[in-house]
Structure formats: C-alpha cells, structure tokens
Fold this sequence. Notes:
Blueprint: H1 8-11, H2 30-44, H3 50-61, H4 80-90, H5 102-128, H6 132-135, H7 142-159, H8 163-189, H9 196-224, H10 230-255, H11 276-282, H12 288-295, H13 299-307, H14 315-323, H15 328-340, H16 344-367, H17 370-376, H18 378-396, H19 399-413, H20 418-434, H21 439-445, H22 448-469, H23 477-494, H24 501-509, H25 515-567, H26 576-584, H27 587-606, E1 616-619, E2 627-630, E3 633-636, E4 642-643, E5 649-651
Antiparallel strand pairs: 1-4, 1-5, 2-3
GO cellular component, one term: membrane
Pfam families: Sugar_tr
Domain Major facilitator superfamily (MFS) profile: 107-572
Amino acid sequence: MALRISxxxxxxxxxxPDRKLAQPFSGWTHKQMTESIEAFLLESGLDDxxxxxxxxxxLAQSKVAFPTDRVRDDGLSLKPVERQYLDLEYxxxxxxxxxxxWRLYALVGCCSLGAAVQGMDETAINGAQVFYPDALGIRxxxxxxxxxxxxxxxxCTLSCWLNYPMNRVLDRRGVIFLTCLISSIxxxxxxxxxxxxxxxxxxxxxxxGIGPKSATIPIYAAEAAPxxxxxxxxxMWQMWTAFGIxxxxxxxxxxxxxxxxxxxxxxxxxxxxxxxSRARLLSSKCSLNWRLxxxxxxxxxxxxxxxxxxxxxxxxxxxxxxxxxxxxKYEEAFLSLCKLRxxxxxxxxxxxxxNYLLKGEEDIMQQQRPFTELFTLxxxxxxxxxxxxTMFLQQFCGVNVAAYYSSSILVTKAAFSNRRALLIxxxxxxxxxxxxxxxxxxxxxxxxxxxxxxxxxxMALFQLLMCIAFRFRAGSxxxxxxxxxxxYLFGVAYSPGEGPVPFVYSAESMPLYNRDFGMGIVTSINWxxxxxxxxxxxxxxxxxxASGAFGWYACWCVIGWWMILLFVPETKDLTLExxxxxxxxxxxxxxxxxLSQLSWFIRRYIFQRKELRKPVLIRKAxxxxxxxxxxxxxxxxxxxxxxxxxxxxxxxx
Length: 653
C-alpha cells in the first residue's frame, strides 16, 4: 500500500517549513551557528549575557555539545554546577526531571489554583439548584432552570475567542488576573439575586471569567515549563479542574443546612414576624444555603489574583513582543527564564531556541494560511476532526449531567433526601479527582487512543446501569444501590480517559503554526456542547424520563467508541515530524487499520488465537511511487519501512 498525495497543495507541505521546527539546528555547521548567535546578540542587545547565550545556543543544537572527555576547539566549556544540572535534566530517572526551581512550581501552583477555580465554578450550581428554583419561583419550569444553569457556558462559547486580543493587551498574567477577578466578583453577585433574571445575568457574566482563563492558563504553564516535563504540566489543568469540581460538591454538603429558604419558620415576608428583618436582609425567602454555595468559589480566584504578579511572565510571550519592536523585552525574557531554570546557561539555551522557533513561526505565517488550512489541508483537517471528536465526546458521554444535575436528579427521581443527594454527589466529585491521577503515567505510557478505547465501553456499561436503575421504584433499595454503583463506576472510567485526553490531544495534534487557531475552535466547540447539555437536560429528562435519558448517553458512549477507533490516531511518543506523517494518512486507511485492530482483538482474546500478533500501522516500503507535487511536476520518493505507531500501511505479524 503506497501513500499517494495527489493534492498539490497538501503535497507541497511534505517539505513544509514547520518541519524545521522539530529539530531546528540539525546539520548546521559551526560557522552557521556562530553567525546566527552573533546576529541574535546584535538584534537583542544582550551583550551582558553573551557568554550564556553563546554556550546555550550550542547546547540547543546538541545535548553533547560539551563533551567531558575533550576540550572544544572554540574554547567554550561548562562550569561544574552547569554540568550537574544538565545531568539532572537529561537523567533517565523520571523523578529527576521533576527537580525544578521552586519558582517554576510556584507558577504551577498558581495555574493549578486557576484550574480549580473553573471546576468549582462549574459544580457550585449542583447543590444550589436543589433550593434556588423554589426561592426564585421557577420550580417546575425546566426551561428557565436549564437556562440559568447553562448561562456561563453560553458565554464561554463566545468569550474564549477573546483570548487572543486580551493576551495581546494584557499579557498572560494580566488575562489570568482579570478573569479571576471577574470570577470572584460574579460569584459574589450570585449570592444576591432577587429573581431568576438577576441570577441568569450574574452567571452569564461568570462566563467572561471562565472562557479566556481556560485557554490562557494551560498556555502560560506550557510556555514556562521545560520541555522534559511539559506534558505532565499540561495534565495538571484537567486534574486540578477535577479538584475544583470536588470542592464545589463539598461546599454543597457543608452549606446545605445553613438558612434553608424553604423553611417558613426562618424566612417570612410578614412584617409582624420577628424574622422579618432577617428576611429583608437577603430577600427572596432569605435562603442562605444556595446563596453561599454559589458564592463559595469566590475565594480561590482571589488567591490567584494576589499571587499571579509575583510570578515571572511567560518568556515566550515576552520574546514575541520583543520581536515586534520592544527590544527591552529581550532582557526581561532572559531574566524570566533565569527564574524558571536552574542556571543561566539553561536560560540562554532556551532563550536562543525560543527566539529561533518564533522566527520560524513568523516565516510560516507569511507563507501559509493558518485558519483556512485547518479545513482545506488534509493533514490539518484530520487533526482538527480527531480533536473535535474527543472534545465533543467529553460532553456527550454525559459526564456533566452528573456534574451539574446529580443532586436534583437524586432528589426528584430517586427519592433521596436533600442532604443524602448532596453527599452522594460529593462522592462522585471525590472519585473524579482521585481517579485522574493514574492518567499522569498512563497517558504517556499506555497512550491517548488506547485510554479512550479501553474506557468508553465501561462508560457505556455504567450509563446503561443508571438507565436500568431508574426503571425500579423510586426510593427502593435496588434503585438506590444501582444508582450509586453506576454513578461512581462511571466516574472511575471517565476520569483517567475522556477526562484528561481531549485537551492534551488537541494541543499536540495541531501543527505549530496554527495551533492557536485550532485550539480556539475546539475549545469553543467543547464549551458549546457543555452549554447544550446543561440547557437541554431538564427538558430532556421530563420528555425521555431518567431511564431513557441515561440510555441516550449510553448509546453515545458506544457511538463514540467507534468514532475513536476509526478516526482518532494515536499521538503518544511521536515527534512533530512523525505527527505530520500520522495525520497525512488518508482517513480510509486509518479506519481500515482500526477495523483490523478490532478483528485481531476478537480473534486473539475471544477465540483464543494466541498465535496472532497485533497489527501495526507502518510507513511501508513499497516499489510503487509516492507522488509529490514539486515545481508543477512529480518526483519519486521511497519511504523506508518503519513502524512508529502511525503510517501508511497495515502490517500483520
């Protein structure tokens, strides 16, 4: 099977300039490196740090640029402390890679708190909706309840597109500061509504704090982190979002018994009643519990607001501004890297490398059409399609039904008491957080695609268990047991797979030169379907019943498994160049590979054909030609046979 690229536009990208960004200085002579270094020093004016930049540049070209057994011809060498920290950086022991400066971990801690803010913003409504519909007079009006609950995600669908202009004006830290401040103010505003319209507006404005923050914080962490632990830090976003989700559930349990608005002995509108002044204080039945639940997420963002400007700005962002004419930013970028790396040598290396990559991106942006190529260029279109599938399924697997509505479902459909429903929901939040930890290791060892393929069948099974549970009599022992088991086991299956994979997969699958455009699209899609699930669930529940509704999401888990099998390639352990090759494989060929995997699995494990070996997708040597458009004609290219987890053929052992 040969790869035939007949689309001249796509074929021309086999030699795309973004390939040079994978190994930028490979094959450069000493003269080329020296000339590039001197040009950079002249451009940046970093004469005071020239020694670190010069030695760091050669280190960026090769890890073994400074051998221990001989002296370089140019006289450059490493200090003992510099070699010590480089040995630590290059160590094969995984734990050594995490021995980083405390300032880097302070930055990671800030980003983690920002992620927790988002998670808590999302689930504060879970417990509050048990109470606020009565207090605001909308109990039984499913449309209004869904509208109020979904308001932030409607805003997020649009506000995440503000990420780029906000970053241009405010920088990374400024966007985080402003969005966290908005989150805190709007959460406080949710404590004082006098009608559902007031609550809707407060929650709608909350989306301004969630959307741009959800796009900026992962980028800020990734740009500050060294390459050898960047993947693990990208994982932190989803993990600490899960922590915030858990905190939202816990707040619901802790605050449920405070000033219940449905208790007439506490809340009254009769001026002669001794409790009247207390009622007037908060109005609308003076219910404190749900108001405090909705206000509880306001504390975490204030910590981030107070903390974020003690951290260094993103070095990459500073260099980007320096390249646009603000020469003083070169020194700021170097000093920022000095705070985030052990030695000035490492800072000089990363500064030189980042600057070169930014120059490469600028060249590519002038030659390519980043936005339109997401849809017209086959490699990019397949990456976008796979990313959209994972983002879409993160919502349509039904997880946010539990996140936003589990307490009200348990109260209205399973006859649980308010407190018991909140406790069960809190248990789901705790499971969602702690079962995300295994993904820190398995996402790079077991693989993104494999995690999804192995967890979606169980998610479907446990959604089906919920479907069966609601066929029993409300409040019966059988229903109670099945509901709890189904909900908790669904969380166990979701947390290490479809929970963390979509954002990691989307961030790495897009080519470097249009990653911002691609991430903007897929993040917006994720928030849109988040909004869609949230607003439609109340009506959906009344129309389909709880059993039918959970059956619907069980079906989507099954459909999602097939979509992943056929259209989502594996991306773990692949370089940028290899990812280009993976996503250039025609969809029909990857689908055929997926079906061969399924066939092998059935014959190997069900029919016990132990002699069969797993199919491997390879770049296949073939006597046929590989057609590549070049200068208006075609030339032959031979591909070596090399299995690497993705390629152009299926090899059966």
